[in-house]
Amino acid sequence: MCGIAGAVDLARGVDRAEVEPMVETMSCRGPDDAGLWLSDGDRGPAAMGHRRLAVVDVPGGRQPMTIEHGGETLLTLVFSGEVYNFRELRQELEGRGHTFRTASDTEVVLVGWLEWGSAVVERLNGMFAFAIWDTRREELFLVRDRMGVKPLYYYPTPDGALFGSEPKAILAHPRSEAVLDLDGMRELLAHVKTPEHGIYRGLYEVRPGSWVRVRREGVDVHRYWQLEALEHTDDRATTVAHVRELLDDIVDRQLIADVPLCALLSGGLDSSAITALAAQKLRAQDAGPVRSFSVDFVGYEDSFAADPMRDTPDGPYVRELAEHVAADHSAITLSNDDLTDPDARAAVLAARDVPVSIGDMDTSLYLLFKAIRGRSTVALSGESADEVFGGYRWFHDADAVDADTFPWMAATRMGPLDHSTSHFAPDLRDQLHLADYVDASYRDALAEVPHIDGVSAQERRMREVCYLHLTRFVQILLDRKDRMSMASGLEVRVPFCDHRLVQYVFNTPWALKTFDGREKSLLRAATRDLLPASIADRVKSPYPSTQDPGYEKALRTSIADLVSDREAPVRDLVDVEALRSAVDAPQDGPSIDTDRAKLESVLQLDAWLRRYRPTLAL
Length: 618
Fold this sequence. Notes:
The chain has about 625 residues and is α+β, with helices and mostly antiparallel strands.
């Protein structure tokens, strides 16, 4: 998977001592190796740094990787991610006369750039973020995969730019500043993932499906891929068959690894389908059983109570699927002590770089991945199936769909605008104008949606709803999955983000996506033969969250300590009396994640202010 970082300065040059700390911040993403290349000894116009997590061609895939001719370096590449069709591309390039020194996908990207230039990105199937320095033209290209599975940030400077897989890499350079202004605070709270917004002032995120070029003339951005409106002519049977055909090919490609691989299993339709497909293909390869992992909480199943988002616990379904496919399964069971462990919560913050944690769901995911890393280096995930196939409950809630805003904000008990701002000081709430920010973001997103003429009003609206999820909501979850996994050096692959599948299903009419009156009809029909009926018919259940009142009690104790501490940096931003009321409110029955969200966010914000010491321009 890896982490990348570097700098370009076409006026004064780049100092090695300034870039080495940037690369070191990426050590969690790449624990296996490190490399740093400068275009001219210890000081030149460009520096490219890499931390490696070795997955494909373990002995041969070291980076930065260069192409040289006549003793001169032509191109230098640092790459993070995977290209799943690199073997076909390699064969094509060999047919054009190119030779290869390694068996890695990284070299295929580098040689492909030499042959096709930036057009090579349109040929890549995978999840990736990479930087390529063209010595001949003195140009830096920053490239991100179509769905934004892998992150990439940049920070323009007067004569170049800084870049990195995560903000922390850029913030390690002395020419960057960690400034949070009102727009940054709005983006933290809005739950809309505005394209290119990097939270910190002056920091940008490369938009999915785009490349950024840095040269003497300045910085320019080009989108090489985006969702298109295409007429869908396949009938139901053909559509279901094509979805299955795509899934078979996608999972087959994503099983390629030279290190131990596993599947993340929750017992829901999405993860079960991926696990079952992987099990089937591994058996056909005589590669042994699929290894799978799940997360659980002490006493969760025995004391589970249905909440607004979850009807059933995962445990029974996880065990049934694991038995059904004969998986080598492990359940990682966490206690309240695990979830409130200061080191674990600090690791989550360090991975996130900004205070956007969703509490125990982030901590448990981090701890799950940390435990998996002891046995596997690569994991397949069912993430993004809900966005692709229409799985969330609010897709099927008329009030949420018809609301003139992002549907996940209009859905019952899913109002981030309410629980994200009520704990802030009144004057800050007034400055934020968060509702206006969200509305502007919503209008911008709607303006991008590609439409087909001659469809019903419902079909037009559902195309908009799907687009909003595929370009805004999914980015929140992919970012979380990447940060929590790479904090432990675990590569998580996301089969449902294959751009061929996303594009095909996006253009499938809503009536076909819900042909049986259920959510994710196409996915259920395409994989039913692989699954027990109970799992194929299971209602969507989100990632689990502890319901133990003891966990919320611990949060309330921490908040009480914080509001009593007059030196706490967060005090100037919050409504202390509102927090005291929240701490003193009756606590009856199981603890629900949406009810304690503001407690979690205040604690994380305070920890972030203490650790990062940003400049607040509010």
